[in-house]
Amino acid sequence: MGKPSKPRKLAENEARAVGRMLRTSPRKLNLVAQSIRGLKVDRAIADLTFSPKRISKSVKAVLESAIANAENNHDLDVDELVVHEAYVGKNLVMKRWKPRARGRVGRIEKPFSQITIVVREKSAETSGEAA
Question: pTM for this structure?
Fold first, then answer.
């Protein structure tokens, strides 16, 4: 006897994963998210693997989680997956203080952020119609 399940927010050919509490600013994380938006998942994983950005390892883990969700929970074909959405949001900000000259204090903010990655299955017929 539980609560009725919520309706699915995504389409039937989509799956998502959310990475929370990533220790970087949303602005820096958005640069990595922009680099994988719209790519096929194998190409996106290759780009993240060889990216010089520190946070790309965490983004790669979230992308792999979205791929696993698509394969195991929604029975989607991994070879046809495309990164449909990759968007970034703010999370907690830790405030720290640093002593400065003449008895003053400097505020240091250590921001966290989160990323949501939605992968979509693009079948051969669908991509043929779009072209």
Answer: 0.88
